[in-house]
Amino acid sequence: MYYGTKGWYVAELKKLGVRYHEGRKLESYRGHVLRNLLLAQQEKLKEQ
After folding, report:
1. What is the pLDDT of residue 48?
2. Helix (H) and strand (E) counts for the chain?
3. pLDDT tens digits for 1-48?
4. What is the count of structural domains for the chain?
5. How many CB atoms neighbour CB 10 within 10 A?
6. pTM to 2 decimals?
7. Is 31 left (phi over 0), alpha (psi -120 to 50) or beta?
8. Is residue 9 classed exposed, middle or buried when 0-12, 13-18 and 19+ CB atoms within 10 A define those classes?
9. What is the pLDDT of residue 27?
10. Domain limits at 19?
11. What Pfam families does this protein map onto (predicted)?
12. What integer pLDDT is reported at residue 2 of this predicted model?
């Protein structure tokens, strides 16, 4: 998998335990949405 691709973002989010967002599977989202989700999840982890 190449860094920054849609599949990479899906894999990274799944490592963090995220499978769905707003009732939809991650795979159904476009790459830029997944990037924003990943950044938000990483910020949450830094705060904790």
Report:
1. 86
2. 2, 2
3. 899 999 999 999 999 999 999 999 999 999 999 999 999 999 999 998
4. 1
5. 21
6. 0.91
7. alpha
8. buried
9. 98
10. 6-47
11. DUF2639 (PF11121)
12. 96
> Is residue 1 a part of any domain in this protein?
no
Assigned domain for 26 exists:
yes
Long-range contact list for 11-20, CB < 8 A, 24+ apart?
12/38, 13/37, 13/38, 13/41, 16/41, 16/42, 16/45
User: Which DSSP letter does residue 4 get?
Assistant: T
Contact assessment for residue 3 and residue 11, using Cβ atoms and an 8 Å cutoff: no
The residue type of 14 is K
Residue 36 lies in a domain: yes
The residue count for the chain: 48
Within-domain flag for 37: yes
- The answer to whether 35 touches 9, Cβ cutoff 8 Å, is yes
